[in-house]
């Protein structure tokens, strides 16, 4: 594939900072990948190159593309997310961050649980979420608890600052960090220690960031600290696709780049290589409704493509059924794979009706980011055991596994153990290893704790010389985990699914250990970042939220639930965030390469009752001439119905034959 002149200029510009600011499908990600290869050809060692992607999946894809170009040399490249980069830096420099090696990384659920425990009892759910988000924002802005307290304007902010302080204290006691710390701590380390900064700046001589518009301020500071004055970096992004402001991303970072790096060169790409011309025109029209700082005109010389179909459905079940019917016909007529088709929606709850319709028609599907392997209790249990083996300070892991399976160690015993641990400044596991502590507890739970500690120390000895998947097998065997699972599940299917999940985890551990030969602690840290991994290579219709679809492309895309209140989301409308919703709509439209299907229901079940819906205001922003709106042109409807029926008959015949 030939790069166009603007792409070429972006790839070859290596003397100073560069921003590629361009619309959807214009080849920004492509530029990053090509540039990796170009830099290696120009004599950069792969080890000196760093490319940052938004998700693990994007990193994996970029690695595959780089490997196709660079073969073995690609192995030395660092291609990862901001969080994975932060983790890497902390593993290398733990003591600068006040951590001991073997620290644990709490996932989002665990850190929320911890906050809940520390928050005043009886606090409302809304308040708790507010506190969680506020603390996360404070962390992303680089404020420590002391600064947060100094900044607090009212009682509510002071409460947040106090909770933040006790939360950090507890994390420190656990020798643990949360996801926000994975960025905050490296930033603090680099900004404080000159020597560290020079070391890391020398290590990565060239930096690239994809989806730059969605970085938050902590991520920007990390980038700046790593790039230093030299400014050897390329950032690529599209302000029209900024869709994470609600989560702390700061689109201002685009302008900040120009202010902090006066030598910044900006390259614009204007040709879209992804979308059929009609789809691109529709997307351009929609985004034109937003006030824009950097207006862009994208063109495409791809074929027009068929009109964008708008389906009008009775309710969500009807909608799901019809969308699936349309996709089956696309697959049948277009001779593509199921994975070339995607259904995108605003919220995860919308997947349910679709799943049902897919199952009823025996259509294979894959839900991205839905029920992740790492959300399953059995996988969390197994990982908690490994974490506790690697990090005796990990009280979160201790509490998760101490009664899994049951060891008859009650809440009172654990409370007393906790008091003793606090008094002696030890972790729960360390305290349970002290005879003097055990002596103060009732005989039975005390014996159970002693036995548990005994097992742990045995596994800790083994950890150095046993492969992690084998260690896990040994642990699960010793604790009778299999028998424990037998008591949990009602059906053999549930039981088998759990076993498959455990086996999948073992495979992942074995794979990682082979690749990196790292220790157990490092391994559990890395695995804890995998939660957004979509490593499912099965062929199936892709189901995902619009947010998760960022950066991806599919031949056929269906965008469902286009009702006001669903999309744009009611709370976004209330809070005046319609422009961000419109950017999300733009992201959705521009995922489609060949055909685009839009649908809405006239009625929708919400909170148990049925309510009438109005079509999304975004539908009215699409140019009418690009649409084939069901019910408005009866002849076209009839023709489409005939095509659909023919495709379904063909599929039935194929199913019967096969
Ligand atoms: N010069 C080119 N010639 C042909 N195809 C290209 C060219 N550049 C990019 N493409 C193709 O266009 C599609 C879109 O490219 P890419 O994903 O890099 O765009 P993007 O700007 O990153 O999009 P998004 O904004 O959605 O992230 C890909 O299929 C890519 O292979
Ligand atoms: Mg991209």
From TrEMBL:
GO molecular function, one term: single-stranded DNA binding
Signal sequence, start to end: none
Enzyme class: isomerase
Family annotation (Pfam families): UvrD-helicase (PF00580), UvrD_C (PF13361)
Subunit structure: Homodimer.
Protein name (Swiss-Prot/TrEMBL): ATP-dependent DNA helicase Rep
Gene coding for it: rep
Domain of life per record: Bacteria
E.C. numbers: 5.6.2.4
Start and end residues of each UvrD-like helicase C-terminal domain: 277-551
């Amino acid at each position: 594939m030939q790069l166009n002149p603007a792409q070429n200029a972006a790839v070859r510009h290596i003397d100073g900072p560069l921003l590629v600011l361009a619309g959807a499908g214009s080849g920004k990600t492509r530029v990053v990948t090509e540039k990796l290869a170009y830099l290696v050809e120009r004599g950069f060692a792969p080890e000196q190159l760093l490319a940052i992607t938004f998700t693990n999946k994007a990193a994996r894809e970029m690695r595959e593309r780089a490997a196709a170009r660079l073969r073995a040399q690609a192995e030395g490249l660092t291609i990862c997310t901001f969080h994975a980069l932060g983790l890497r830096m902390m593993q290398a420099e733990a003591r600068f961050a006040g951590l001991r090696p073997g620290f644990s990384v709490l996932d989002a659920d665990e850190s929320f649980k911890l906050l809940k425990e520390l928050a005043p009892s009886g606090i409302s759910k809304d308040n708790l979420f507010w506190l969680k988000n506020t603390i996360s924002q404070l962390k992303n802005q680089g404020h420590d608890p002391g600064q947060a307290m100094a900044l607090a304007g009212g009682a509510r902010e002071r409460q947040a600052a106090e909770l933040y302080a006790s939360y950090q204290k507890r994390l420190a006691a656990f020798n643990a960090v949360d996801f926000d710390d994975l960025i905050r701590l490296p930033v603090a380390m680099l900004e404080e220690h000159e020597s560290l900064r020079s070391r890391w700046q020398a290590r990565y001589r060239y930096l690239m960031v994809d989806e730059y518009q969605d970085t938050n301020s902590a991520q920007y500071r990390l980038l700046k600290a790593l790039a230093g004055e030299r400014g050897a970096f390329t950032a690529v992004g599209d302000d029209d696709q900024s869709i994470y402001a609600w989560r702390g991303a700061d689109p201002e970072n685009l302008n900040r780049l120009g202010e902090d790096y006066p030598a910044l060169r900006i390259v614009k790409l204007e040709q879209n290589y992804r979308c059929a011309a009609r789809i691109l025109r529709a997307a351009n029209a929609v985004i034109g409704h937003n006030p824009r700082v950097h207006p862009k005109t994208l063109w495409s010389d791809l074929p027009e493509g068929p009109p964008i179909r708008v389906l009008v459905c009775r309710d969500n079940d009807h909608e799901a059924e019809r969308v699936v019917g349309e996709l089956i016909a696309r697959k049948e007529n277009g001779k593509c794979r199921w994975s070339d088709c995607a259904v995108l929606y605003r919220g995860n709850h919308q997947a349910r009706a679709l799943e049902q319709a897919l199952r009823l028609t025996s259509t294979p599907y894959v839900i991205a980011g839905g029920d992740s392997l790492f959300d399953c209790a059995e996988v969390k249990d197994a990982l908690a055991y490994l974490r506790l083996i690697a990090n005796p300070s990990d009280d979160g892991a201790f509490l998760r596994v101490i009664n899994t399976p049951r060891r008859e160690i009650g809440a009172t015993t654990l409370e007393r153990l906790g008091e003793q641990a606090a008094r002696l400044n030890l972790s729960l596991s360390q305290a349970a290893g002290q005879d003097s502590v055990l002596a103060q507890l009732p005989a039975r739970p005390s014996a159970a704790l002693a036995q548990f500690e005994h097992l742990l120390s045995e596994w800790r000895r083994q950890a150095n010389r046993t492969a992690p998947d084998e260690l896990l097998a040994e642990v699960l065997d010793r604790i009778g985990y299999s028998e424990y699972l037998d008591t949990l599940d009602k059906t053999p299917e549930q039981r088998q699914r759990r076993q498959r999940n455990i086996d999948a985890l073992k495979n992942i551990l074995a794979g990682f250990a082979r690749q990196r030969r790292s220790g157990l602690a490092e391994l559990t840290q890395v695995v804890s970042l995998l939660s957004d991994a979509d490593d499912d290579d099965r062929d199936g219709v892709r189901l995902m939220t619009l947010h998760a679809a960022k950066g991806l492309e599919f031949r056929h895309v269906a965008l469902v639930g286009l009702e006001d209140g669903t999309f744009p989301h009611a709370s976004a409308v209330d809070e005046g965030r319609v422009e961000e919703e419109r950017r999300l709509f733009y992201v959705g439209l521009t995922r489609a390469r060949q055909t685009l299907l839009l649908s809405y229901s006239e009625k929708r079940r919400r909170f148990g009752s049925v309510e009438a819906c109005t079509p999304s205001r975004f539908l009215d922003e699409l140019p009418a001439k690009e649409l084939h709106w069901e019910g408005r042109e009866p002849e076209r409807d009839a023709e489409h119905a005939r095509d659909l029926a023919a495709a379904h008959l063909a599929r039935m015949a194929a199913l019967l034959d096969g």
